[in-house]
Design goal:
Blueprint lengths: L1 H14 L4 E4 L1 H8 L6 E5 L3 H10 L4 E6 L4 E6 L2 E7 L1 E4 L8 E4 L3 H6 L9 E3 L5 E2 L4 H6 L2 E2 L5 H7 L2 H13 L2 E2 L1 H10 L8 H12 L4 H10 L3 H4 L1 H4 L14 H11 L4 H9 L4 H4 L1 E3 L2 E3 L3 H15 L4 H13 L12 H11 L3 H10 L6 H24 L11 H8 L7 H14 L7 H16 L7
Parallel strand pairs: 2-5, 10-11
Antiparallel strand pairs: 1-2, 1-8, 3-4, 4-5, 6-7, 8-9, 12-13
Bound molecules: adenosine-5'-triphosphate (ATP) and magnesium ion.
Adenosine-5'-triphosphate binds next to helix 7.
């Protein structure tokens, strides 16, 4: 499929006397024998001509990705192809926007790329590899090394520092010493990078095969202080009284244990982020009372700062807020308690259960097995209830109109507590949804207690 697309593109470009190279991640991953999502190409053709040649190669759609950067995107079925005109960028130091100029040579273009392993090209006309910066040697040595002088390259675009760590988490490669030293020296420059680009890289790091390695690197190189100070605080907590397991180390284990779902990985990273603020001791015993509530609020602020969409922010915050619930499960829980977990977790129930399973990182096998059994028992009860009834759709037997008619009152804030009272009874299982007559009685009794509150004693 990919080969077929590349052959058609190669034919179309060479017929017009143009060069076409596979570049960047596509070549890197090809040499590593790992799959690569998009196809990255470079050419000496200008964007207008590229559009035309790509269409001739039979693309289903052709569009400008970043006209300013001279990138043309195309779809061949589901496959996305990006073709960029050779660039020679001149950066004004410390300005955010590089001035882009079209260059005329492939080597000039490769020299503008971030890391040697990303600066290899394959000529699609001949199949030859062009590797002016020793990318293949670094692939073999499993090293991430900046092209050229690392200080300059990070100064041009500080995001590259995060890219280095993200690539390390994806490939399991080390960062070469001089490149690493340049990151340490310039970590603060991440302040010049937009939160969106930072959030993007962090997400990619989190769903990579080695997220714990990446997160530890972020912390060790000084990047985490800039982008996730709240998480870094879990590493540097004071240990008073009894020792407790380092929260940062535990967090990394949980991130690694949960499946690579983006919301779940973010929730794993942030589930204990409220601990530094809530730490306390009772009789020499450490506790973190309310850390899930404080943590959920922190997660919400942090993810909003990184410009994630509302839905993601709310999902992750909900998972953080609820992360202790499944592990507190006991067989004595009523159906009502199980229904509440189902309803509050909403679409995130499976993620919540996965997070709870991963949250037990004890060294003791017995403890881990017991915790897994507990979560599994809750999962089983959830499944049974969901099979039997539509738990999420449970409603009060009487709606607002019913209640207004019953009490002869108009619309107002008095309705909500009555409906909630009846809904609670339904969730607890003491009132069926179709028991309207009992619901009427119960509503009357409830409203009577509301209307005549017992005299308060201070
Ligand atoms: P993946 O797609 O798996 O993340 P990739 O290496 O293809 O890996 P992209 O973001 O798709 O990453 O970028 C494509 C190529 O563009 C990179 O391989 C690299 O050569 C170059 N590149 C991307 N971002 C930068 C940057 N900030 N500075 C220099 N070169 C970059
Ligand atoms: Mg790519």
């Amino acid at each position: 499929m990919t080969t077929d697309i590349l052959q058609r593109l190669a034919a179309s470009f060479s017929a017009a006397g143009r060069q076409l190279y596979l570049v960047g991640g596509s070549v890197r991953d090809e040499l590593l024998g790992r799959p690569h999502q998009d196809i990255d190409l470079a050419t000496d053709a200008r964007p207008d001509e590229t559009k035309h040649l790509v269409a001739e190669a039979g693309a289903d759609a052709v569009f400008a990705v970043g006209e300013r950067f001279g990138t043309i995107g195309a779809l061949f079925g589901e496959r996305k192809v990006e073709i960029t005109t050779f660039r020679s960028e001149t950066y004004t130091p410390r300005s955010r926007k590089p001035a882009v100029e079209f260059g005329s040579s492939l080597v000039g273009d490769l020299g503008r790329r971030d890391f040697t392993i990303n600066a290899i090209a394959r000529d699609l006309a001949t199949g030859a590899l062009i590797d002016p910066f020793g990318g293949r040697r670094d692939l073999a040595g499993r090293r991430i090394r900046a092209v050229g002088r690392p200080e300059e390259r990070f100064d041009e675009d500080p995001l590259r520092m995060l890219r280095a760590v993200r690539l390390s988490a994806e490939l399991g490669f080390a960062i070469e010493a001089a490149t690493r030293a340049a990151v340490v020296a310039q970590a603060q420059r991440l302040r010049d990078i937009s939160q969106e680009r930072i959030g993007d890289e962090l997400s990619r790091l989190l769903v990579a095969p080695h997220p714990a390695h990446g997160l530890r690197l972020l912390a060790d190189l000084g990047l985490m202080r800039e982008v996730l100070p709240e998480v870094l605080a879990t590493r540097d907590m004071p240990e008073g009284g009894r020792r407790f397991k380092n929260v940062f180390d535990h967090t990394l284990q949980v991130v690694e244990k949960v499946p690579p779902d983006l919301d779940l990985r973010w929730a794993a990273l942030l589930h204990d982020v409220g601990k530094p603020e809530t730490i306390g001791w009772d009789d020499g015993q450490v506790h973190f009372r309310g850390h899930e509530v404080v943590g959920a609020a922190m997660a919400e602020r942090l993810l909003t700062r990184l410009r994630f969409d509302r839905q993601r922010v709310e999902r992750v915050a909900r998972l953080v807020a609820m992360h202790l619930r499944p592990n507190s499960y006991e067989p004595e829980w009523t159906d009502g308690a199980v229904r509440r977990v189902i309803r509050e977790a909403g679409d995130e129930l499976d993620l919540l259960l996965a997070l709870s399973r991963a949250d037990v990182t004890s060294q003791r096998r017995g403890r881990v097995a017991a915790a897994e059994a507990r979560v599994e028992a809750l999962a089983q009860r959830c499944r049974e209830l969901i099979e039997r009834e539509n738990v999420k759709a449970l409603k009060s037997p009487l709606d607002g109109n019913d209640l207004m008619a019953l009490f002869g009152r108009g619309p107002g804030p008095w309705i909500k507590p009555v409906k909630e009272h009846l809904l609670n009874l339904v969730i607890e299982g003491t009132l069926a949804q179709d028991e309207r007559e009992r619901a009427v009685e119960l509503a009357r009794a409830f409203v009577a207690t509301q209307a005549a509150p017992a005299t308060r004693t201070a």
